[in-house]
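pls design
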């Protein structure tokens, strides 16, 4: 695991763009796994301002809420369209359909697509409780794309984005730990004090189901970008 310490999330975002550029220039980036959340906002801002060309790149997103449509401002589909896809063309973009009638079939469909399009790079943020994507504490390392019940702590953190008259979904679709670990390279971003407990667990070097981020210790190519000095 390589760690790059930066002074700010903006500098972290620049670093991530540099890493992406290197892989694109080397002809190694055909499939890019994307993440959502506030951590990724400066990254997509830098990407859209840059001359990076994704017209030959297929994108897959990590996760999506169940029960809110792509037109809902809190859906991850909406977030991706607003922040990136409307400004930077990609060859194809994929995200789980949280409105699917048959959610289990949707998970199988998505995991099959991932198998057919192996991820070259996967971006990851970290939840305050150590989740990656929506793989909450207790998730099996063998997990593939699945339906998840969000934990109280994730609901508490993410409910800040929903207004009082909106009901926050308590279930989601997420790539599993195994789906994520198939990616050739993982770029993990963690900015701000709230991420310190999760990063401390990662840097302690012990894999634990209770802190899903520690599963990344078993991946051969992980770059952590953080403004935390640990
Ligand atoms: C969310 C998302 C994750 C994200 C994480 C951190 O719940 N499902 O994919 O990485 O929590 O979010 P933020 O970057 O806003 O701290």
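designed seq:
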């Amino acid at each position: 695991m390589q760690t790059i310490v930066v002074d700010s999330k903006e500098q972290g975002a620049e670093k991530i763009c540099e890493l992406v550029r290197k892989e694109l220039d080397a002809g190694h980036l055909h499939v890019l796994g994307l993440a959502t959340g506030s951590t990724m906002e400066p990254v997509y801002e830098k990407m859209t301002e840059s001359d990076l060309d994704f017209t030959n790149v297929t994108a897959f997103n990590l996760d999506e809420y169940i029960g809110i449509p792509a037109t809902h401002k809190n859906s991850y589909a909406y977030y991706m369209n607003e922040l990136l896809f409307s400004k930077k063309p990609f060859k194809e973009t994929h995200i789980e359909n949280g409105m699917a009638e048959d959610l289990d079939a949707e998970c199988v469909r998505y995991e099959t697509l991932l198998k057919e399009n192996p991820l070259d790079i996967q971006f990851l943020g970290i939840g305050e409780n150590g989740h990656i994507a929506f793989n909450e504490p207790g998730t099996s390392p063998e997990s593939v794309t699945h339906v998840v019940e969000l934990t109280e702590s994730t609901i508490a953190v993410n409910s800040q984005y929903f207004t009082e008259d909106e009901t926050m979904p308590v279930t989601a679709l997420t790539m599993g730990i195994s789906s994520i670990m198939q990616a050739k390279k993982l770029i993990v971003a963690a900015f701000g004090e709230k991420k310190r407990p999760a990063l401390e667990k990662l840097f302690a070097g012990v894999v634990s189901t209770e802190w899903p981020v520690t599963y990344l210790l078993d991946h051969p190519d992980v770059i952590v970008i953080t403004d935390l000095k640990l």
